[in-house]
Design a protein that fits this description.
Length: 479
C-alpha cells in the first residue's frame, strides 16, 4: 500500500526539482556564453598573434572567419544530431570537444595549426548552440520559457560585453606568461565545469521522430562555401585569376546541392535546406539582410581592433577598456529594442539603419580629415552611436525575418537564417581583409605601420557604409 508524501516531503521534492532545473539551465547558458565569447575575445588578440606567430593576413583573417564558417556550415547538422541522438548527449560531447579545441588553439605552435584548431573549435560550437535552443524550447513552458530565453540573451550579451575587456586583460596581464594564448585557455575551467554539472543535472530529450542526416548535402554546401570564401580570403595572395577561379568553383557545388535537396523533397525526405524556402521572397530578402548586416558588424570590430593597436598604438588592455562602453551601449540597446519594436514597429529598424550608415560616413570623414592622428575624442560619440543602432537592429532582426514567413517553414527557416548569420560573419572578415591588410608592407601584418593601419581602417569603414545602405534598402523590402 502506497503512502502519500507529507507536505514537507513534497516541498523538499519540489525544491530538488527546481534546483535541478536551475543548474541544468546554468549549464545550457554556459554553452551559449562561451560560443559567443570565443567569436569576440580573439579580436583584440589578432595583432599579438600576428607578431608572435609571424602570421600573414590570410591566416589572421582565417583565425576569425574559420571559426564562423565552420560554425555556420554545420549549425543545422548539429541541431539534427541532437534530434537523433539526444540533446543532452550531443551538448556534452560538443562542450567537451569545444574545450579540447580551445586547448589546441592555446597551444598552437604556428599560424597554420592555430587556423586548423579554430576551424575545429567552430565545428564543435555547432554541436552546442542548437542543443541550447532546443532544450529550452522543449524543457520549459510559458513564463518559465520566456525567462529562460531572456537569461540566454543576457548570457550572450554579457559575452559580447566582456569579450573585448577580458581579452585585453588576459593579453596585457600576460597570465602565466602565456600572453594571447590565455584567450583560448580560459575556456578550460568553464568547459570542464559545464560537462561535470551537465552529466548530473541536464535532462535528456530528442525529437519524437528521428530525422536522418544529409551527408551529401553537408559535403556539397561546405565545399561551395569553402571555395567562395577561400577565393575572397586569398585574393591578394593567389592573385585575381586564381582566386576568381576558386570562387567560381563554388557555383557547381551550389547547383548540385540545390538539385540534391530538390530530389530529397520529391522523395518525401527531410532536406538540409528546403528549396521551397528559396521561392519565398520574404526568405530571400531576409536571408540577404541577415548576411549583409552580420558581415558588416563582425568585420567592423575586427578592423577597429587592428586600428586601435596598430594605428593608435594602444595596448590590448587599453583597447579592451575602450571597447567596454561600446559593448555596454550595444547591450543596453539590445535590451530596449524589443520594447521599441512593440511600440513603433519595424520603423525602428529602418531608422536605425539610416543612423548606421551616417555613423560610418562620419568615421570615414574624420579619418580622411586627420589621417596622421585621428582624434578618439571625436570618434567615440560616433562609435557609440554605431554600437547603439547595431543593438537596435540585431536583437529583433531575426524575429522580424522569421515572422515574415509562413509558420510551416519556421523551423527550417530558423536554422537557415542562423546559418546565414554565421556565414555573414565569415564573409565580412574575408572581404574586409582584402582592404584592411592590403596596405601592409609585403603582407606582413605584424609589421603594419600606423599610417597603413589608419588607411586600411578607412577603407574598411567605407565598405561598411555601403553595407549599411544595403541593409536599409533590404529592410524597406521587409515592411
Amino acid at each position: 500500500m502506497a503512502v502519500a508524501d507529507t507536505p514537507a516531503v513534497a516541498e523538499t521534492r519540489t525544491d530538488a526539482v527546481a534546483r535541478r532545473r536551475r543548474l541544468g539551465l546554468a549549464v545550457l547558458l554556459a554553452g551559449s556564453f562561451v560560443t559567443v565569447l570565443d567569436a569576440l575575445i580573439v579580436q583584440l588578440a589578432l595583432p599579438s598573434i600576428a607578431r608572435d606567430l609571424d602570421a600573414g593576413s590570410a591566416a589572421i583573417e582565417l583565425v576569425v572567419a574559420g571559426y564562423s564558417l565552420a560554425y555556420g556550415v554545420l549549425l543545422v547538422t548539429g541541431g539534427r544530431l541532437g534530434d537523433m541522438f539526444g540533446r543532452k548527449r550531443v551538448y556534452l560531447i560538443g562542450m567537451a570537444a569545444f574545450t579540447l579545441a580551445s586547448i589546441l588553439c592555446g597551444l598552437a605552435p604556428n599560424a597554420t595549426m592555430l587556423v586548423a584548431a579554430r576551424v575545429l573549435q567552430g565545428a564543435t560550437a555547432s554541436l552546442v548552440l542548437p542543443q541550447v535552443l532546443a532544450s529550452i524550447r522543449v524543457g520549459y513552458d510559458g513564463a518559465e520559457r520566456r525567462r529562460a530565453f531572456g537569461l540566454m540573451g543576457l548570457a550572450m550579451g554579457a559575452a559580447s560585453a566582456l569579450g573585448q575587456l577580458a581579452g585585453g586583460i588576459l593579453i596585457s596581464g600576460d597570465v602565466f606568461g602565456l600572453g594571447w594564448r590565455m584567450v583560448f585557455l580560459v575556456n578550460l575551467p568553464i568547459g570542464i565545469l559545464a560537462v561535470l554539472v551537465g552529466l548530473r543535472f541536464l535532462d535528456e530529450s530528442r525529437a519524437p521522430q528521428g530525422a536522418r542526416l544529409d551527408p551529401l548535402g553537408i559535403l556539397l554546401s561546405s565545399a561551395g562555401l569553402g571555395c567562395l570564401l577561400g577565393g575572397l580570403v586569398g585574393l591578394h595572395h593567389l592573385g585575381p585569376v586564381k582566386a576568381g577561379l576558386l570562387a567560381l568553383l563554388s557555383l557547381p557545388f551550389f547547383f548540385w546541392f540545390a538539385r540534391h535537396e530538390m530530389r530529397l523533397e520529391e522523395r518525401g525526405a527531410l532536406p538540409l535546406l528546403s528549396i521551397r524556402l528559396l521561392r519565398l521572397p520574404a526568405f530571400l530578402v531576409g536571408a540577404v539582410t541577415v548576411l549583409v548586416f552580420y558581415a558588416s558588424c563582425n568585420s567592423y570590430y575586427v578592423s577597429f581592433a587592428v586600428f586601435l593597436q596598430f594605428g593608435l598604438g594602444l595596448t590590448p588592455l587599453q583597447s579592451g577598456i575602450l571597447f567596454t562602453p561600446i559593448a555596454g551601449i550595444f547591450a543596453l540597446a539590445s535590451i530596449l529594442a524589443p520594447r521599441l519594436i512593440g511600440r513603433y514597429g519595424t520603423r525602428v529598424l529602418r531608422v536605425s539603419a539610416v543612423i548606421y550608415a551616417i555613423g560610418y560616413a562620419g568615421v570615414w570623414l574624420e579619418l580622411g580629415r586627420s589621417q596622421a592622428e585621428p582624434s578618439l575624442w571625436l570618434l567615440m560619440p560616433v562609435l557609440l552611436a554605431i554600437a547603439a543602432v547595431q543593438g537596435f537592429i540585431m536583437t529583433p532582426l531575426l524575429n522580424v525575418v522569421l515572422g515574415a514567413l509562413p509558420e510551416s517553414h519556421a523551423g527550417m527557416a530558423g536554422g537557415a537564417i542562423a546559418t546565414m548569420q554565421q556565414v555573414g560573419n565569415a564573409l565580412g572578415i574575408a572581404v574586409i581583409g582584402l582592404v584592411l591588410f592590403a596596405a601592409a608592407s609585403g603582407g606582413a601584418v605584424g609589421m603594419l605601420h600606423p599610417s597603413e593601419a589608419v588607411i586600411g581602417f578607412g577603407h574598411a569603414v567605407l565598405l561598411e557604409f555601403f553595407a549599411a545602405v544595403t541593409v536599409y534598402a533590404l529592410l524597406r523590402r521587409l515592411r
